[in-house]
Write a structure and sequence with these properties.
It is a single chain. By secondary structure, this protein is an alpha+beta fold. The protein folds into 3 domains: 100 residues, Rossmann fold; 70 residues, 2-Layer Sandwich (Dna Ligase, domain 1), CATH 3.30.1490; 241 residues, ATP-grasp fold, B domain (D-amino Acid Aminotransferase, Chain A, domain 1, 2-Layer Sandwich), CATH 3.30.470. It contains 16 helices and 22 strands. Strands 13-12-9-10-11-14-21-19 form an 8-stranded antiparallel sheet, with helices on both faces. Strand 1, helix 1 and strand 2 form a beta-alpha-beta unit. Helix 13 packs antiparallel against helix 14. 50% of the residues are buried. The protein binds adenosine-5'-diphosphate.
Length: 448
């Protein structure tokens, strides 16, 4: 096992990885930008290295600075968290070239899954069903028209290099297709430097359901069941839960989706933690949309219902240990919900609302977990993602988890900061949400 690991991230996820490292007796090294001096993740680590100014491109995304910090402090492995460098194959290669272990999958599989049209084709061939659409990238507007005609409108034009909902455009009929392609290409070119696009049938009112997977270096893989993440704004998740209420509605959905995810894992020779994302149509058909080759923000829901520490497995597998858990040993205990706490204003189209926190107190108690990256007197700056914390609750069933969440949120005091807590409380009491009956546009339909 490693003696020392470096965490190439900030905020709640850096603090969360440090907690597991502490539990395992591993020394931790944090990195931080000038703006994050004194931040909770810096205080929590055994050692910390400043790596540059506030802007992420000058600090957290600087591969060399991160690797130099690891070398200087004798870190044998690097955990990337999520976001930032976590899905960057160039970073993984640089880490390995420096003789350091990357805690995550291989760079080749990251490259494959990072190209969404290539990943689609690969998944299809691996018995992991994809949304009806083009075979790989589309070369021309004429070809796009032909494919869209065959699929039937509406269709989605998506950027191959896409992420964060960028470069995704809806065409409701043939007249709107060319414009959707143009917009998609332009946005993808400026965000990713790659205008390549592909086309999918637009599934109306789908749910977002995803499967957590884990695989060791000897080809042994399991899935830790599904999470539902349909409460979204701007294609970003706001509330997640495990298991998905849809699993009670559609017989064998869990088994089939789990198997499809494992088919992909096996075909890709995947290692470490990953998430296979699907959309689920209202009639129960599910389709692969992408694979995230890293730990997800919402992983705690899975930890709450399975009792497994996913970060611990990530570290053990990276250190060469076998994944000592069999699929039939895993079971689901109760229900878990996660509310992402954003410094943002739901009444102003979810605009970020950075500011000072002042007094601060977190809820605690049975079945309540808070993963936070802030503390009393802390200042939320506009430099980084406005997500300040996650509240995760567990209960014997979905209603119990929801009631516990309401109690937790009412007891969460984040000083003067404007947050989306009031919106969470409304959603948690909304009859559609209580019925487990929401789709990916539901939140925006209700609140925008
Ligand atoms: P990104 O990589 O940009 O996050 P995804 O492919 O993961 O994009 O899709 C993000 C969200 O967009 C999904 O959770 C879903 O809400 C919606 N979406 C994606 N593809 C489709 C589709 N074919 N039909 C309907 N909604 C879709």
């Amino acid at each position: 096992m490693f003696d020392t690991i470096l965490i190439a991230n900030r905020g709640e996820i850096a603090a969360r990885v440090i907690r597991t490292a502490n539990k395992m007796g591993i020394r931790t090294v944090a990195v931080y930008s000038e703006a994050d001096a004194g931040a909770p993740h810096v205080e929590a680590a055994d050692e910390a290295v400043e790596i540059g100014p506030a802007r992420v491109t000058d600090s957290y995304l600087k591969i060399e600075a991160v690797i130099d910090a690891a070398k200087e402090h004798d870190a044998e492995a690097i955990h990337p968290g999520y976001g930032l460098l976590s899905e960057n194959p160039e970073f993984v290669r640089a880490v390995e070239d420096a003789g350091i272990t990357f805690i995550g999958p291989r760079p080749e599989v990251m490259e494959l899954m990072g190209n969404k049209s290539a990943a689609r084709e690969f998944a299809n061939n691996a018995d992991c069903p994809t949304v009806p659409g083009s075979d790989g990238a589309v070369e021309s507007v004429d070809e796009a028209h032909e494919i869209a005609e065959q699929l039937g409108y509406p269709v989605l034009v998506k950027a191959s290099a896409g992420g964060g909902g960028i470069g995704m455009n809806l065409a409701t009929n043939a007249d709107k297709l060319e414009k959707a392609i143009e917009t998609s290409k332009r946005r993808a070119e400026s965000a990713f430097g790659d205008p390549t696009f592909y086309i999918e049938k637009y599934i109306e009112n789908p749910r977002h359901v995803e499967v957590q997977v884990m695989a060791d270096n000897d080809g042994h893989a399991v899935h830790f069941f599904e999470r539902e993440c349909s409460v979204q704004r701007r294609h970003q998740k706001v509330i997640e839960e495990a298991p998905s209420p849809a699993s009670a509605q559609f017989e064998n959905l869990r088994e089939q989706m789990g198997q499809a995810a494992l088919n992909l894992v096996e075909a890709a020779d995947y290692t470490n933690a990953g998430t296979v994302e699907f959309i689920l149509s209202p009639n129960g058909d599910f389709y692969f949309i992408e694979m995230n080759t890293r730990l997800q923000v919402e992983h705690p829901c899975t930890e709450m219902i399975t009792g497994h520490d996913l970060v611990e497995w990530q570290i053990r597998i990276a250190a060469g240990e076998a994944l000592q858990v069999q699929q039939d040993e895993l079971s689901i205990d109760g229900h878990s919900i996660e509310c992402r706490i954003y410094a943002e204003n739901p009444d102003k189209r979810f605009m970020p609302a950075p500011g000072n926190i002042g007094e601060y107190s977190e809820p605690s108690g049975e079945g309540i977990r808070v993963d936070s990256g802030v503390t009393a007197g802390y200042k939320v700056t506009p430099h980084y993602d406005p997500m300040v914390a996650k509240v995760i609750t567990h209960g014997a069933d979905r209603d119990a988890a929801i009631e516990r969440m309401k109690t937790a949120l009412k007891n969460y005091h984040i000083g003067e900061l404007t947050t989306n807590i009031p919106m969470h409380l409304e959603v948690l009491d909304h009859e559609d949400f209580r019925a487990g009956d929401v789709h990916t546009s539901w939140l925006e339909d209700e609140y925008l």
